[in-house]
Structure formats: structure tokens, C-alpha cells
Amino acid sequence: MSFLDDFIWRAVIAGAGVALVAGPLGCFVVWRRMAYFGDTVAHSSLLGVALGLLLGFNVMLGVFAAGFAVALVLSGFLREKRLSGDTVLGTLSHASLSLGVIVISLMTWLRVDLMGYLFGDILAVSLTDLYLVYGGGTLVLVLLWRALLAVTVDQELARAEGIEAPRYELMLMLIIAAVIALAMKIVGVLLVTSLLIIPASAVRRLSRTPEQMALMAAFVGVLSVLLGLLASFQFDTPSGPSIVLASLMLFLLGQIPNFRKL
What we know:
Layout: H1 7-31, H2 35-55, H3 59-80, H4 85-106, H5 114-119, H6 127-153, H7 155-160, H8 165-187, H9 193-203, H10 210-235, H11 239-254, H12 256-261
Helix pairs in contact: 1-6, 1-8, 1-9, 1-10, 2-3, 2-4, 2-8, 3-4, 3-8, 6-8, 9-10, 9-11, 10-11
């Protein structure tokens, strides 16, 4: 049996890979205050799962499609500015989650592990998932980091450098949707946004440059995965919530210097 055939090692490697990608992208989520967008895409993932099962195609493709659809719809509404972003996000978030649950509940001919989708099942990670996480993550961060950072920091300066802000803003939404789809197996629909937000938030006040914050967020994310999986194996707790609680503990540790100033 090869090294990667061991499901425990696959879980560790997959979790670490998603954390390495989610950490830097989470910095953009924190900087641009897109946490609610992440939740909306995460909730739409369940609808993608339902459609994938109902229509008989790969569930992951359904999740990608649902996430991309939400990103495109939101982008269109934000350009029109007829409704506020919060209003659109709230509507899409609750509607897609509710519709996904209803569609799954109506498919009585299938046995669906709803809890696995809601809270993750990292031990079901496949080799294909590993290739997507590491290959896609590396490609995105290497090719798009500079442009995404420029658009986030100063759109006028980015435009002067020939970087079209609307295009890269939409691209960032689609990338976040893709990462959420990949991370769904690890922490589930309800908790997936935590991998983006908590590590980045934990190191925001400890870092001096965007690159330093991205690296530190990736490190905190990987450490959260390792500690969470260790606790899960040791105490027989769900892996997804265990990872989130581990990241919360690291976040609180990072806030100790702030508490001392009070």
C-alpha cells in the first residue's frame, strides 16, 4: 500500500493543502470584508450537491457550478446597484441553502449523508481532490497574487498599471467559490468559511506586510488542521468542527497582546 493510499495521510495532506490556499485568499476576504459572500457561496454548495445528485453528474462539478452562479449573480447586482450587497447576499444565502435541503430531502431513492456535507468528512478525500487542491492553488497564487493585491489596495493605481479591477474582482469571487467547493469535504458547508476568515483574522495585527500576513495565515491554517485532526482522532470528535475550534484557539492566543493593553 502506497503512502497516499492511507486515508489518514490523505486527510492531513488535503487539509494542509486547503489551508495553504485558504490562508492567503482569506486575507483578501478580510481586507475586502467579503465574509458574508463566503457564507453565501458555502450555503449554495449544498444546492450544488443536490443538483449533482439529482441530475446524475459529479457532485463537485455541481458545487463549482452553484458557487460560480452565485458569484456571477452577485457581480451583476453589485454593478447595477439597485439592491445593497447585504440584501442580495442574505437572500441568495438562505434561499440556496433551504432549496438544497429541500431537494435532498425529496430524493428518497438516494441515501445522502447530509451531516457529512454540512460538517465535512475529511476522511473521504480522494487523490483527485489532492491534485486539484495543490495544482489549482499553486497556479492561482503564483499567477494572480500581484494583480489581486493591486486591485484590493488601490484600484486607481491598479488601473494605471493596466489591471482591470472589475475583471479581477469577479475572478477573486470565482476563486473563492472554487476554494470553498474544495474545502467543503474538510469542514462542511456550514463551517467552510472559517478556514478563510479565522486564520487571516488571527494574524492581521501581527503582520507588517500583505505577504507576511498571507504566509502567517497559511501557517495558522495548517496548524489548525493538524491540531484539529489530532483532537478528532484522540477524542473521536467530528473532524470539521475540531479543525474550526483549533483555529479559534489560535485566534484567541493571537489576541492576548491586545487584551494586555486594556
